[in-house]
Design a protein that fits this description.
The protein is mostly helical. 69% of the residues lie in helices and 3% in strands. A two-stranded antiparallel ribbon has the order 1-2. It holds the Pfam family MerR_1.
């Protein structure tokens, strides 16, 4: 199928497909005129890539993990990589929670009738 057909079937933009190809996440055959042609399994591959992105993984991590997916194996290394990604996300969540708590404190200061918001925030 051609790139526009794949984009429609997988529910992504043509630009996203080109990016996936640039990152080594998706491959296409090229016609004599240079047009991309994808196999029947390409839409499923794109949906997998989308799932991995939505799980917070970077394109580099996805590229590192896809050989295991393609081989249908789970290695200690791939599991460790996923655990490290989860830990990275946990750290981000903790940092965002602290940021939200600070914002809550700023909101509380700004709504207290006896405080001068500008002075309290300085």
């Amino acid at each position: 199928m051609r790139i526009g057909e794949l984009a429609d079937e997988a529910g992504v933009s043509v630009r996203a497909l080109r990016y996936y190809e640039e990152q080594g996440l998706l491959t296409a055959e090229r016609s004599g005129s240079g047009q991309r042609h994808y196999g029947d399994a390409a839409a499923e591959r794109v949906r997998l890539i989308q799932l991995l992105y939505s799980a917070g993984l970077t394109s580099r991590t996805i590229a590192d993990l896809l050989p295991c997916v393609d081989a249908k194996v789970s290695t200690p290394e791939s599991r460790a990589r996923l655990a490290a990604e989860r830990d990275r996300i946990d750290t981000q969540i903790a940092e965002l929670t602290k940021t939200r708590d600070r914002l809550d404190a700023v909101i509380a200061l700004s709504t207290a009738p006896e405080s001068n918001c500008v002075v309290a925030l300085a």
